[in-house]
Each structure stands twice: as structure tokens, then as C-alpha cells.
Amino acid sequence: MIGVLNRPGFLKAFMCVVLFFELGHIKAQTCIADFLYSYLDSTTIHIYNHSTQYDSAIWTITDGVVVSESMQAIVVSVPSGETRVCLRIISPDNCNDEICMDIYPGSEGDICSVTDCVWPGDANGDRIANNYDLLHIGVGYGTQGPGRTYSPVPDDPLAWTPSHAENWEQWVGVVNYKHMDCDGNGVIDASDVEAIIKNYTPDQSFVPDDYPGAPPIELVLDEDVIVIEQNNRPDSIVITGSVQVGSSVKPMNELYGLAFSFTYDTSQVRSGTARFSKIGGSFLGQTEEIFDLSTNLDGTHLSGRADYAISRNTQQGTSGFGAVATFSLVIEGDIIGGRDINDINLKISKIKAVDSLGNNLPFDLINGDITVVVVEDNITSSQDLDDPSAAVLFPNPAKGIFQFKSVNRNWAWLEVINIQGQRIKTQVITSDTEVISLSGIPDGTYWVKAWDRDGKWISKVMVVQ
Question: Among 203, 257, 287, 307, which is disulfide-ready with 131 (CB 3.0 to 4.6 Å)?
Fold first, then answer.
């Protein structure tokens, strides 16, 4: 006997009980035809055989074409975007059953409307793949469960398509661990990061909570002033720094993973060069206890942005403070173009810190916006260049005036320069302690350059009127 039902196949698996008479006795039918489907694009449908107790299957599409090459899954191209699909199965004991459904975009029976479908790379269940998904992979790291037995694109298990997958026993909030098994091999580990990279879509909307007074997170430059010689300009200049978490006064407690975005001025930075790397041996863990993801979005999604995530893999958080990752980027050697000072602005944002259960941890972002200054030295001699002991500025921050005091140097004159590299004030130095008026100068950070016959000295001053 063949039962033909025009209704969602997934519901049929739970609702259909077909009885028939056999030798005078009532017996439950042993096979139930059922299938699930999803749209790979507007006209391509992936259909998966979800039947029970069968050893052969026949698919029939709208125009009557019979497809029997695959019992498990088929991919159908439908120019109109909709079609009628029928599936007939036969069980080992000669039980027969059939189901037919009209399939079109938005119709009932789509795999993601009737099951918690898996998108490769989306480990946190928000249907996009990016650096925040690495944090969930870290939480579930090492856990094993049922692997996915099929892929909508057989030759590419990481393809960005929805897949049916059996639930695992473990959950992080409302997210089942099956989502963290991004490659579908039945184990959560660093190889699942490949699916994130392949299907990467940067987050545009995440805004972290602000917790003033919580353990700090900051971006720190190895050098905030880089001086190059006019007659020996390099082809490229490497800027380096680190991400610092916590402090000796306020250490970060039970940290397990960290993710954030890093942005920079595209007019000065060589495309694709911004990168982050984990620090083995930091308070976050030894090299084998941590894994990370660094994605530069230049030329793909967003110019002037790199995303990063780092996580432990031990199922236990850790407490402490210090640098957990380093960063580097390359600026072109010819960016100066006749200017004495060039500012490269860097910013860290969209930060998420979690514990070993995936819960958000509070933090206080400090020095989220920083500037590295590249100075071209046009003085032939560079003796005592940028010697911090050569002079002092005080008070700093300054209000109304500041004083420039020289130490055993014969200074000639100084300049006050804003962060755009524009000369705001020039003054001849006539004494060991020179008073500089700040009248009419807006609040902000400025650079002070002073010259003598042997070289140049540079420092920052904060103006507060």
C-alpha cells in the first residue's frame, strides 16, 4: 500500500501512523517516507531523505523525471524557484510509502523552519560566521558528538548552506554544541575555524556594554613616535604593539576568550598587512592551551579593518593581567610626501570577553583610540635625537601656558603642531626655561618639536583650557 500525503515531511515523521491488515492482524507500517529541504540559492534546492526503515528510494520532480541515483540527498535546479517533489521508499520487508510536497521559497518544510539547522562556521547560532564564533568553539573544545552524515554540497562540507544535524547532549545557553562542530566531523577543535574563515561575514552591529572601573583592556604601541631619516627613507615601516588585559590593581578574573575589531587609516597602511598573533606563555595560557583567528578584511569586506579572536581550549578560565596578543601593520615609506609629521590612527572596538561557560565578562576599555606618529627628520645630524632627558614640558596637561625647560642643550626654537601635522605656533627659545602661551589653542593633544644645531627633540602636550 502506498500513502500519498501533501504536507510537510518533517511533521509526517511524528504524525503518520498507517495501519494495514496482515493475516487477519493489525500491524503498524514499518516505513515512513519523509524529506527535508533547503534553498542553496533562489533556484537551487537541496533535498534530504529523512525517511525511516528503507533500502531503496525514488525521487520524482515536477516534470515527471525520476531520479534514483541517490537514496539520501539530491540537488535540484528549478528555474522558476518552485517545484513539486515526491519521494517513494521501499523497506526490506516490502513496505512502500510516498510523500509529495510543493516546494517554494518560504514554504513549510524548509529545514531551518522545522529543525535547528547548522550553517558551517556559525558556532554561536546567529547565522553569520565571524570572530565571535571562535569563542563558542573554545567553550566546546574537545567535545565529541554525532557528526553530520551528509553535506548539501557533497564536495564541500564547509559550503555556506544549511544542514540537518542531530542535537548533541551539551548546550551553551540556547545554542546546541552541534553548531560548534563547524566541519561536521563529530569533534569540536581548531579545524572548525576553517569554516569561519571560508564563510566570514564581519559583525557590524555588536556594541559591548561599558563597565567603568572594571578590569581594563587597552591597545599599547611599542613605539608611539617613529623617526625616519629624510635621506634614508625605508620602503616600508612596521608598526607593532599589543593588546593588554587587566592590570596589577584590577586583574581580569576567569578569562577564557576575547574577540574584537581593529580599525586603521587606509590612506597610510599597506593593504592587507594588519595582523594579530597570540602570545604563548601569557597569563591566558601556554601555546598549546590557546588558539586564535586573525582576519584582515581589506579587499574582501571592509577596508581598514581586521578582526581577531583568541580562546583557551582547556574548559577552565584563568585570572591575571598582561599582554595576550601582539599586532603589526605596515605603512609605506613614501607616505610623508613633504610633511614632517604623519599620524596613523588605530582603534580597537567591538570587544567581547567571556568565561569558560560563554558568559560575558565586564571590562573597561582604555586607550581604545591611539595614534602612532611617523616623523621625518630633515636634520643631517641625528645626535641625541628624541632623547627624553634633553628637555621637559610642564605642566602637562597644560592650561593657558606651558614651560619648556632645557637640560644642558643650546636650543634654538620650537614648534607646536596639532595631530593633523599643522604648525600652530613657532617660538624662538631665548632662555633655559621658555614660557609658551596657549592662548587661542583649542583643547587636545599636540606635539612639541624643539631644535638645536645637533638634532631635534619631540614630545606630547595635552592642552586643557
Answer: 307
